[in-house]
C-alpha cells in the first residue's frame, strides 16, 4: 500500500516550445516521482481531451495553468491520504473523479501526469526499475527490448506540409541491440542528409521529431530517397534496413477524398496507391494508410497487403480498447500504435495493449511530436514488451532521452531486440 502525501503540478515547455504539464507525487514514506506529459500535433478525433487554458493572450491559448491548478486543488484533495495498492487503483480513482468519457473535465494531460508520477514514486518506494513496475502492471515478464522505428524524413503536420505523408522511418532489421540499431541509423541518416543537401541544395533542416524535411516533390520522391540513403550507407534495403511509413492520411482527407502527390483519390484509389508503395519500396509497416473513419478501406487494405507488412492504427484506434476490438472484428489492422496520452491513464493503455496482444497484433509504443526530456516512455515500451518503439529521429534531446534510456536498460539487463515477423 502507498499513501499519497502531496501532489505538485508545474507548467513546463515541450519540444515545440508549447506549454505542457509536469507532475510530482510525494508518497507518505518520502518516495517522490516526477513525470512530464507529451502532446501531439497530428491528433485523432477519438483522442481524450487535452486541457488547455484557452486564454488567447498567453501562449495562444495553449497554457496549462488550469491543469496545474487541478493537480494542486481538486485532484490532490481527492487523493491525498488515500491508501492505494497500485497504479490501477489510482487510475480508477482518477477516472471516477473526472467522470467523463474523454477526460474532458480534468483533461487527459492532468490525469496522465498524476498517473505517471505515482507510478514512478511507487517504483522508487519498492526499489525496482520503472520498466519492471510497468511489466507487473501487465503481468508479463520483461523479455526483450523493442526494435526502434527511427524517423528519417518528415512531412505533413510535422514539417509544414511540404509533402503530404508524415514520416518515413528506418527499421534496422539485422540489428541485435539498440546500440547496433542506432549506429546503423546514424549511417543512413548521415547519407540522407548528404543526399538531401546535394539534391535540394540546402542545409539539412529538421522537422518536429528531428527528421530531415527537404522540399520533396512527391511522397514517392521521399520513399525513393530513403531507399537510396540506405544503399549509400552501405546497407541493403529490405535486408539490412527496411522502411516504415506513417502516412497519417486523416490529415489530407476530407469528404471521402485523399489529396496526395497532386492526385485526388477516393478510398479505393488510396488502397491501390498504398499497395503500389508496398510493392515498390521495402516497407514493413504502414501506419494510418487510410483516414480514421474510413473503416471499409482499412479492411480491404489489410486483406490485400500480404503478411510481410503490418497495418498499424494510430488515429484509427487512439489507444482505445473499444476501437481496437472493432478493428479486430473487421480485420482493419494488425498492429497497435500505443500512445498513453490518447486515453489518459496507464490502466486504459494497458487494456488497449492486452486487447491488441490477444488478437495476435504487434504493438508499437510511440512518443508524441511534442515531447519533453522525460524518458518514462522507454521503460514503458520495455515493460510492456512492445515489438517496436517510435520516438522520432536520432537528433534532439527530447528524442535521445528515450534512446539513451533504452541503451541504459540494455546495458543493465542484457536483453536482446525483439524479432520481426517473417
Ligand atoms: P503526433 O503524431 O504526436 O503529432 O500526434 C505522431 C504520429 O502520428 O505518430
Ligand atoms: Zn501516426
Number of domains: 2
How would you classify the helix and strand content by structural class? alpha/beta
**According to CATH, what is the topology of the largest domain?**
TIM Barrel
Question: How many strand segments?
Answer: 15
* Main beta-sheet strand count, sense and barrel state: 8 strands, mixed, barrel
Question: What top-tier CATH class of the largest domain fits best?
Answer: Alpha Beta
The pLDDT mean sits at: 97
Contiguous low-pLDDT stretches (5 residues minimum) are none
Ions, cofactors and other ligands present here are: 2-phosphoglycolic acid, zinc ion
CATH H level, superfamily name of the largest domain: Enolase-like C-terminal domain
Main-sheet strand order equals 5-6-7-11-12-13-14-15
What features would you describe in this structure?
- 39% of the residues lie in helices and 19% in strands.
- By secondary structure, it is of the alpha/beta class.
- The chain has two domains: 2-127, Enolase-like, N-terminal domain (Enolase-like, domain 1, 2-Layer Sandwich); 138-413, TIM Barrel (Alpha-Beta Barrel).
- The strands form three sheets. The chain has an eight-stranded mixed barrel with strand order 5-6-7-11-12-13-14-15, surrounded by seven helices. Strands 3-2-1-4 form a four-stranded antiparallel beta sheet.
- Strand 8 (253-254) and strand 9 (257-260) form a beta hairpin.
- The protein is globular.
- Residues 246, 248, 287-288, 314, 337 line the site of zinc ion.
Write the layout of secondary structure elements.
Layout: E1 2-13, E2 19-27, E3 32-36, H1 65-79, E4 83-84, H2 87-98, H3 108-126, H4 130-138, E5 147-154, E6 167-172, H5 178-200, H6 219-232, E7 241-246, E8 253-254, E9 257-260, E10 263-265, H7 267-280, E11 283-287, H8 295-304, E12 310-313, H9 321-330, E13 335-338, H10 346-358, E14 362-366, H11 376-383, E15 388-392, H12 397-413
Parallel strand pairs: 5-15, 7-11, 11-12, 12-13, 13-14, 14-15
Antiparallel strand pairs: 1-2, 1-4, 2-3, 5-6, 6-7, 8-9, 9-10
Residues 40-43, 166, 246, 248, 314, 366, 368-369 line the site of 2-phosphoglycolic acid (PGA).
